Model the fold of this input.
Amino acid sequence: MAKLMVDTNLCPQNHACPSVTICPMQALSQEGYQAPVVDAEKCIVCGLCAEKCGKKALKIVE
Done:
């Protein structure tokens, strides 16, 4: 089963994550400028957030 993962090594954690606002299920949240957190129960693994992430820190994994 596929799921969304956040690679904190690739996430710069120095800005408001643009992927948080694009999620249609509001499955991503961010506190301050920390790496976003995925709510697996809300995430439908659509990939929109991964496409929006310029640093490729959001990844869909099997």
The chain has one domain: 3-61. Strands lie at 3-6, 28-29, 37-38, 58-61. The first helix runs from residue 18 to 22. The CA atoms of residues 21 and 28 lie 8 Å apart.
